[in-house]
Amino acid sequence: MKITWLGHSGFRIEIAGQVLLVDPWLTGNPVFPADRRAEAIAGATHILLTHGHADHSSDAVALSSDLRIPVVGIYDLMSFWAERHDIQTVGFNKGGTVDLDGVAVTMVSAAHSSSVGGEHGPIYAGAEAGFMIAGEGHVIYVTGDTDVMADMRVFNDLHAPDIGILCCGGHFTMDMARAAYAARTFFDFKTVIPCHYKTFPLLEQSADPLVAALPGIDVRVPEVMETVEI
Predict the structure, then answer these.
(1) What is the pLDDT along the chain (230 residues), one digit of tens a residue?
(2) Strands (E), the chain
(3) What does DSSP assign to residue 1?
(4) Which residues are CB-contacts of 72 (< 8 A; sequence separation ≥ 6)?
(5) How far apart are CA 186 and CA 191, in angstroms?
(6) Where are the alpha helices (DSSP H) in 96-214?
(7) SS3 for 69?
(8) Any idea what DSSP says for residue 170?
(9) What SS3 class is residue 227?
(10) Per-residue buried b or exposed e for 12-27, using 16+ beta carbons within 10 Å of the residue's own CB
(11) For a tag site, which of 63, 149, 201, 214 has the least CB within 10 Å?
């Protein structure tokens, strides 16, 4: 399995023969190297979206159209796009599981908000979510944008994720301390990868507090376009 950080909340996950682009914000992302776009999206089979905010979804329609691959996410937003664009979508909802050619993806709750830009302001884009991605004998919990939730205990009981991709930049999501609390309190991760930080000055700039707060856990802190192999 290979997990490549695309900056902010974007990841390229190569798992069980599939290449998943999770929240791939490439265009206009201040930390993503534009000259490595082709490398980031090469061979992609699916696009997974946790919610509609532009720093997660703004490239999804164009990538789906160009690569002829489906966008997978909350039913409301997928239906909205399917009616307006010539793209493939897979819409489902929290608690549901879809089989992406051998990779099982379950949608779970998050505590955030979700909208896309409209002519007269934000348009509701269905609920925010996270994902449990199962394949190759591992389960990856992608939090999406969220705060700590007691629901996380249920997620662990049902899915037992061994890899956590945790938002932790603060202001819009959990910060490092809250993400560490969530990891310690509700999960038994073997590996943790931070995201949604240091993209802008408003966010936390270092994952050192997360590393320090999770002794005994393999906290990987990749640079943008660096691959973690598990």
Answers:
(1) 999 999 999 999 999 999 999 999 999 999 999 999 999 999 999 999 999 999 999 999 999 999 999 999 999 999 999 999 999 999 999 999 999 999 999 999 999 999 998 888 888 889 999 999 999 999 999 999 999 999 999 999 999 999 999 999 999 999 999 999 999 999 999 999 999 999 999 999 999 999 999 999 999 999 999 999 99
(2) 2-7, 10-15, 18-22, 46-48, 71-74, 89-92, 97-100, 103-109, 115-116, 123-124, 129-135, 138-142, 163-167, 191-195, 218-219, 227-229
(3) -
(4) 46, 47, 48, 49, 78, 89, 90, 92, 98, 100, 105
(5) 14
(6) 151-159, 176-186, 208-213
(7) coil
(8) S
(9) strand
(10) bbbbbebbbbbbbbbe
(11) 201
- CA dist., res. 50 & res. 130, Å (int): 6
Q: Are 151 and 108 in contact (CB under 8 A)?
A: yes
Q: Which residues pair with 20 in a beta bridge?
A: 13, 46
How far is Cα 13 from Cα 15, in angstroms, rounded to an integer? 6
